[in-house]
Every structure is written in structure tokens, then in C-alpha cells.
Design brief:
Elements: E1 3-11, H1 15-22, H2 25-35, E2 41-47, E3 52-60, H3 67-70, E4 77-85, E5 92-101, E6 106-117, E7 120-131, H4 137-163
Antiparallel strand pairs: 1-7, 2-3, 3-4, 4-5, 5-6, 6-7
Helix pairs in contact: 2-4
């Protein structure tokens, strides 16, 4: 069944500006260097006419993980995350995200919708976290949802700075 992800972030920029940022490979390399955690890297990126498909790797050091996770899977968690954005149509674009962790029986997947008008935009994340571990799965799912919301917020802060012209890592 899994646990739902329902979150949104806002930007003081037009949907066109936000979308142009999301499909810019340099943005992704800089974002991962800034907020991706230790060893974060873009594994692959493909761009098209206003679209992007990428795979990134991130890690969470074992010392930052709760004991419920390290008791099942010791060591750092290596996360493989995929994200894609389709073209901007009017003031709207659709995206997808997914993630899996090496050595863990579960996954994260969902959609992202960029929408707005004028000089304001919102990205709505809707998805599901599913961890298939008897008795502990729902507890781990809740931890993952909390971590994802924190990550989405950190990424929003970085993206807002990028949109305002701060392109440093």
C-alpha cells in the first residue's frame, strides 16, 4: 500500500523561468554539489526540446540514519534517483520522479506538476513510498517521507537562489 507524499513548493518566478531551470543540466550539477549530500553526482542526463531525463546518485551517511534503518541495512544508504520533466505547455509542465536504495526492498515514485501564472509558480509533488519489510515497513516509510519533504525544501531554497541569479556552488 505505501505511504503518500503530498508536498508543494512555491517560487517567486514565472513557470517559464522555473521550467528553464529544471531542464538545465548545469543547474543539476550545481544543485547536487550544493544540497545533494556526500558523493552526490549526476549519473546520466539527456535533454531534448525543453525536456530532461536524469539519473542522480546521492548517499546518506550511516551516522545520520535512525537505528531502525541501520538495524536492517548497515552502512551508508546509496540512493539512485530518477527525475524527468516534459515540455512547458502554456504555464504548466509535468514531471516524474522515482528513487530506490541499494539493498532495500522498496521504492519511491510520483509526479511533479509545475504550474502558475505571471511571476509566481508552484511545484506539486504527489507520490508514494513503499518499503516491503514486515512490521517495520510503515515506520521506515514515514521516515522516508519526512526526509523527502526536508530534501524538497532544501532543493526549493537552492532553486530560489538560482532563479534570483546566485549560481555559485
Amino acid at each position: 500500500m505505501g505511504s503518500p507524499i503530498d508536498h508543494s513548493v512555491t517560487y517567486s518566478s514565472s513557470p517559464a523561468a522555473v521550467h528553464a531551470t529544471f531542464v538545465d543540466p548545469q543547474y543539476w550539477h550545481t544543485r547536487l554539489a550544493e544540497v545533494g549530500g556526500p558523493g552526490a553526482a549526476v549519473e546520466s542526463v539527456e535533454t531534448g526540446d525543453g525536456t530532461i531525463d536524469l539519473v542522480v546518485q546521492q548517499a546518506i551517511p550511516a551516522e545520520h540514519l535512525p537505528s531502525v534503518v541501520t538495524s536492517i541495512r548497515p552502512g551508508d544508504l546509496v540512493i539512485h534517483r530518477e527525475e524527468s520533466w516534459g515540455p512547458l505547455t502554456g504555464d504548466r509542465a509535468q514531471g516524474r520522479f522515482s528513487a530506490r536504495v541499494d539493498g532495500m526492498p522498496g521504492h519511491v515514485e510520483g509526479t511533479m506538476t509545475l504550474q502558475g501564472d505571471g511571476n509566481e509558480s508552484m511545484v506539486v509533488f504527489e507520490g508514494r513510498v513503499e518499503v516491503k519489510i514486515p512490521f517495520l515497513g510503515s515506520k521506515i516509510e514515514a521516515l522516508i517521507v519526512d526526509e523527502l519533504v526536508g530534501l524538497f525544501t532544501a532543493e526549493q531554497t537552492f532553486t530560489a537562489a538560482w532563479l534570483s541569479g546566485d549560481r555559485s556552488a
